[in-house]
């Protein structure tokens, strides 16, 4: 563990203590992850008469969905699944209105499918088999036009779990264990509880008494929220979401999972969803992870890849944890131990690239091109208004846009007869060294009279 300062630890623990006391939680754990390591752990309350530890298991609910999504993305990267495939290509037998939705829509909760499965509330009653679930999903399962809006669907992730099982030839849980948990060292994440584990409770709203909540195997619905885990394992998961992906997924694939596919609060855009990952914006941070709730349990993991920091909590109560707990812990960390910027160091120059740096003009709009220390180039507007992007070098000498309007677009350096750069061609947009340089091939030409009063 790379520990936080004592003063920081005290402030973090006090925030957790207030949450446990005011929320009337039987037990509550929290942790901070920095640079891939558990930097702080705190706990309040009791599990079987003792304070919980980083190895105490709690049910983590819908955080399960993110692990299922990782296996789906592995299948995509292997070429076995296309995100635009209709789910019926991989799970035959689905009815009209269900089978047509795409894998990407299921991953991002934009399929329009019902939030819950047919029959009784699946979180508190024995589950049905995958065959029974597929047969039970009829036209009324579709609640919205696919792709129209964000609509959280536990049913959707049940189907993704079945997709995984049919491709791997083992249960979704076995696939998660072999392909994610074991490689990441998450040995204490299981489908059913193992000792020591917390028991799930509901706390009476008007009295300080507890009611045990049921626990069972959800079968077909299990991919939506079956797993149990520990704070220590969830710390490793937070590091994974932040980019420490090991050999499980390429960092670029996890970055794709963190990209917003939809938002759930309209213009405010404080919450949204990527591919199997929930997203949030808070206090200048852009967070990725997932919340989790099952009868008797609450849990959440958030990670900020730009800062390589993560936070998490687990609790054994059906309700009572405030939405602001984890963002408050991040704020405390920022206040007490703000991250120092990396030291600037010079990097080896490339004469062929150095001559491209400096001002360029798209028509009369001023841009500047600079080399990035990690490689690649960045084309930014002067003054902040307009389109900008980073570009990565390609084997054929072109550059690929990485973000914004130019994401996926090609930047070419066009050279004159003497080999010097004449202009930049960015998907038909021509950038010249002076505004509307008549020596370059500006689309539509340049007025022969030139600039005038």
Report on this model:
With 453 residues, the protein is of the alpha+beta class. The chain has helices at 6-22, 63-77, 103-107, 130-136, 154-168, 172-184, 231-242, 251-258, 325-336, 351-354; strands spanning 27-34, 37-45, 58-59, 201-203, 210-212, 228-229, 262-263, 271-273, 278-282, 285-294, 297-304, 309-315, 358-362, 365-371, 377-381, 389-393, 399-401, 410-415, 421-426, 429-432. It has 2 domains: 6-336, DD-peptidase/beta-lactamase superfamily (Beta-lactamase, 3-Layer(aba) Sandwich); 352-432, Lipocalin. The chain contains 10 helices and 20 strands. It has an 8-stranded antiparallel β-sheet with strand order 2-1-12-11-10-9-8-7, sandwiched between helices. An 8-stranded antiparallel β-barrel has the order 13-14-15-16-17-18-19-20. A two-stranded antiparallel sheet has the order 3-6. A hairpin with a 6-residue loop joins strand 4 (201-203) and strand 5. The longest helix is centred in the first third of the chain and has 17 residues, at 6-22. The model has no long low-confidence stretch (mean pLDDT 95). This is Serine hydrolase domain-containing protein. Residues 351-433 form the DUF7586 domain. GO terms for molecular function: hydrolase activity. It is an enzyme of class 3 (hydrolase).
Feature tags:
20 strands; globular; 2 domains; Beta-lactamase; eight-stranded antiparallel beta barrel; 453 residues; eight-stranded antiparallel β-sheet; alpha+beta; Lipocalin
């Amino acid at each position: 563990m790379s520990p936080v300062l004592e003063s920081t630890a005290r402030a973090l623990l006090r925030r957790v203590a207030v949450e446990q006391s005011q929320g009337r939680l039987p037990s509550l754990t929290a942790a901070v992850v920095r640079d891939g390591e558990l930097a702080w752990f705190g706990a309040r309350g009791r599990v079987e008469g003792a304070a919980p530890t980083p190895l105490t298991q709690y049910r983590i609910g819908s955080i399960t969905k993110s692990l299922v999504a990782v296996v789906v993305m592995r299948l995509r990267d292997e070429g076995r699944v296309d995100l635009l495939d209709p789910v019926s290509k991989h799970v035959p037998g689905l009815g009209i209105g269900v089978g047509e939705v795409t894998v990407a829509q299921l991953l991002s909760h934009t399929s329009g499918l019902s939030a819950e499965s047919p029959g009784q509330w699946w979180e508190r009653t024995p589950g049905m088999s995958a065959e029974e679930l597929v047969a039970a999903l009829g036209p009324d399962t579709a609640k919205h036009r696919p792709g129209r809006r964000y609509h959280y669907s536990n049913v959707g992730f049940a189907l993704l779990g079945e997709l995984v099982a049919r491709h791997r030839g083992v249960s979704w849980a076995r696939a998660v264990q072999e392909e994610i948990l074991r490689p990441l060292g998450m040995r204490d994440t299981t489908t059913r509880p193992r000792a020591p584990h917390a028991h799930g409770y509901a706390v009476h709203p008007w009295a300080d008494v507890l009611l045990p909540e049921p626990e069972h195997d959800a079968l077909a619905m299990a991919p939506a929220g079956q797993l149990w885990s520990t704070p220590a394992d969830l710390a490793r998961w937070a590091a994974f979401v932040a980019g420490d992906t090991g050999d499980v997924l390429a960092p670029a694939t996890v970055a794709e999972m963190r990209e917003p596919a939809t938002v759930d609060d309209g213009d405010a855009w404080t919450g949204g969803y990527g591919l199997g990952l929930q997203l949030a914006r808070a206090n200048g941070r852009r967070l990725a992870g997932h919340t989790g709730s099952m009868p008797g349990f609450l849990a959440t993991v958030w990670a900020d890849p730009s800062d390589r920091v993560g936070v998490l909590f687990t609790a054994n109560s059906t309700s009572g944890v405030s939405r602001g707990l984890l963002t408050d812990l991040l704020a405390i960390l920022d206040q007490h131990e703000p991250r120092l910027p990396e030291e600037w160091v010079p990097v080896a120059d490339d004469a062929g690239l150095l001559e491209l740096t400096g001002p360029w003009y798209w028509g009369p709009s001023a841009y500047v091109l600079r080399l990035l220390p990690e490689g690649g180039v960045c084309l930014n507007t002067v003054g902040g208004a307009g389109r900008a992007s980073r570009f990565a070098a390609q084997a054929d000498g072109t550059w690929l846009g990485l973000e914004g309007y130019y994401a996926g677009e090609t930047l070419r350096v066009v050279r004159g007869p003497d080999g010097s750069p004449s202009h930049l061609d960015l998907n038909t947009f021509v950038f010249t060294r002076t505004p509307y340089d008549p020596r370059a091939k500006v689309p539509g030409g340049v007025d022969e009279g030139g600039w005038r009063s």
